[in-house]
Amino acid sequence: MPHGDITHLEIPVSDFSAAKDFYGTLFGWSIAEVPGFDDYPMWQAPNGISGGALVKRSDDFTQPRSTVEVDSIDDVIAKTEAAGGRVRTPKAPVTDSSWFAVLEDPDGNLIGVYETAG
Questions:
Q1: pLDDT tens digits for the chain (118 residues)?
Q2: Domains of the chain and any CATH numbers
């Protein structure tokens, strides 16, 4: 996906089973566990393009969070800090060829960024 596209939406939930039933019934989302991603059931919209995951609700994760594809997390982190934002979750691997970080804008909104090799 091109730099700047929203690629993923994480929804914090307290009960995975109830959330799967709710979102599956409400929107027709296909929700399934993915090998290697424990307690992170991923959903896909009927269009086959939009998707995300259900995430265990916690004190610091109470609102849905969008994730944006970027060419370079390191570059985006530098720009974030220069523009008055900060890093909430440092860059970390998702797989051998992808990385993730969470940034906070000056208003306190959290947004994920995702980079793939290549």
A1: 678 888 899 999 999 999 999 999 999 999 999 999 989 999 998 888 889 999 999 998 999 999 999 999 999 999 999 999 999 999 999 999 999 999 999 989 999 999 999 7
A2: 9-61 (3.10.180.10), 70-118 (3.10.180.10)
Backbone phi, psi, residue 62, to 5°: -115, -10
Burial label for 28, CB within 10 Å (0-12, 13-18, 19+), is: exposed
pTM confidence score: 0.83
Query: Listing from the earlier edge strand, what are the strands of the sheet with 86-95?
Result: 30-34, 37-44, 51-56, 6-13, 65-69, 110-116, 98-104, 86-95
Which phi and psi angles does 73 have, rounded to 5°?
A: -60, -40
Q: In whole angstroms, how far apart are CA 11 and each of 7, 56, 57, 76, 115?
A: 14, 8, 8, 23, 20
Please state, in angstroms and rounded to a whole number, the distance separating the CA atoms of residues 70 and 2.
7
